[in-house]
Amino acid sequence: MFDKRVHNFCAGPATMPTAVLEKAQAELLNWKNGGSSVMEISHRSIAFMEIAKKAEQDLRTLMKIPDNYKVLFLQGGASLQFSTIPMNLLHGTADYLETGTWSKKALTEAKRYEEAGLGKINVVASSKDSNYTTVPDRATWQLSDGADYFHYCPNETIHGVTLFDVPDVDAPIIADMSSNILSSPIDVSKFGMIYAGAQKNIGPAGLTIVIIREDLLGKANAICPNTQNYLNQAENDSMLNTPPTFAWYLSGLVFEWLLEQGGVEAIYQQNLEKAKRLYDFIDNSDFYQNPVDKKYRSIMNIPFTLANSELDKTFLEQATNAGLLNLKGHKSVGGMRASIYNAVDLTAINDLIGFMQQFEKNSV
Ligand SMILES: Cc1ncc(COP(=O)(O)O)c(C=O)c1O
User: What is the pLDDT of residues 8-62, one digit of tens each?
Assistant: First the structure.
């Protein structure tokens, strides 16, 4: 149907930089004259160890990760972290902030450990009553004294809601950054742990990154499986069992690409510009609408609705024909969603706006 790459607004697995795919394609069959692809070599070989180390080092450079943090390259997606976190860190009470589908899923999973008598899960506050279009006022948060950790999701991928400031809480902060990691500069030292599924800003699906402060290692409870124990993974350089080697390699290429773009600060400026253009267009139109409280609007995931939802199907069909793919909103929210991660460039945004303008003209 398409004879060239399209503009892909998928929430994940998401578009990858074309330059990265081209590089992977060029070295696919015979990586660095070793006679094999990266997929076909042992994770314990010197060649793969070099790939692994370089990827970690580049990620450390990009995010300015302090030395007292371990970087783990794991499997199971961000969703497996929802249960891995309590198995490693829940002993008394853990605080959870609920601001959308993903933080709610993390909370629901953690509650199983409460039901099993392994600790208490405290919901600090929830924005459910607003259909997750805002963040509960900090003054209303019911924090626990001496919590083991505070969990939140800084960027809710489905609802397009972002907490831009790191919460000022005493407990170690754990953040699900699946959809905003590497999109803007952050101060890693403010977090106890950061985790992210790779399939948006990092690389292909199948890899999960965990960045964890060393003092949080070695606290796993008795039911924690060996592979989910952060200390075990840290001590074994994430190679306790076979890691997702090809995804690790591709992510390393994305990190190199990002460094070539000027790093996180440079891509952040582009991300701001992309989001501003789209929000400005939506806000200046009576036909399109974004429901999110302006101060919490995500620069990565932008949901929007049409004035008449009966036009949704036609909008999506025509957008696809115009080479603008995967704009359908999540079924729990409806309407549309443009996920505009690092690899979605300004041309894609301009083309999307041009299409939306034309569609509006044809429809009113
Ligand atoms: C914020 C967030 N957390 C968690 C997940 C789940 O990730 P995975 O599919 O890797 O388990 C997603 C997936 O889209 C997400 O956006």
Answer: 999 999 999 999 999 999 999 999 999 999 999 999 999 999 999 999 999 999 9
Cα of 113 to ligand 1 centre, how many Å? 20
In this structure, the answer to whether residues 272 and 181 fall within a common structural domain is no
Tokens of 89: 């860190």
* Residue environment code for 114-135, b if the CB has 16+ CB neighbours within 10 A, otherwise e: beeebbbbbbbbbbeebebbbb
Range of the domain at 122: 23-260
Of 260, 290, 307, the residue at which a domain comes to its end is 260
102 included as an active-site residue: yes
Active site residue 257: no
- Measured in Å, residue 197 CA sits from the centre of ligand 1 at 6
CB atoms within 10 A of CB 214: 14
If asked whether residues 248 and 191 sit together in one domain, one would say: yes
Is the CB of residue 101 below 6 angstroms from any atom belonging to ligand 1? no
- pLDDT tens digits, one per residue of 49-101: 999 999 999 999 999 999 999 999 999 999 999 999 999 999 999 999 999 99
The amino acid sitting at 154 is P
Is residue 248 annotated as a catalytic residue, yes or no? no
Residue 14 lies in a domain: no
Report yes or no on 61 lying in a domain: yes
- In the chain, % helix, strand, coil (3-state, to 5) comes to 40, 15, 40
- 58, 70, 102, 328: which is the annotated catalytic residue? 102
Q: Are residues 267 and 288 in the same domain?
A: yes
Q: What residue owns the CA closest to ligand 1's atom 14?
A: 12
Atom of ligand 1 nearest to the CA of 79: 11
Of 70, 104, 120, 200, the catalytic one is 200
Say yes or no: 41 and 88 in one domain: yes
Element at 7 (helix H, strand E): strand 7-8
Q: How many domains does the chain have?
A: 2
105 and 134 share one domain: yes
| CATH of residue 171 | 3.40.640.10
Interval between CA 178 and ligand 1 midpoint (Å): 6
